[in-house]
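Quick illustration, no need to memorize.
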Amino acid sequence: MDVREINVLVLAYLGDTIYENYVRRYLINSGIGNVNDLQTAAIKYVSAKSQASYVTEMLSQNLFSEDEVNVIMRARNYKTTSHPKNCDIVTYKYATGLEAVIGYLSLINKNERIDKIMDFILK
């Protein structure tokens, strides 16, 4: 199967777990030893608002390849009416785009590229 044809929400489903794993490892390695403190710190990175902010910043700096932008735009343009109560639909779609591109990169075994994206976010 061509990875580019996989539903973007499926890519985001995978990307979400990878993204969160990076964030959790980063926070644990930063020395936070309390689960409640880890959860509080993680919100800075895993909220839809934060994810949308990171992806739009990276887009404005042209840090994504053409294929990566295509995945992000597919996710942004995907027809859905559901989104979390704490953010608007556009923010949610950009956040989904970030997760989708990470899922996409994982499926094509571009883990070094995921590392670079996450380094930008976790700087």
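The longest helix spans residues 8-29.
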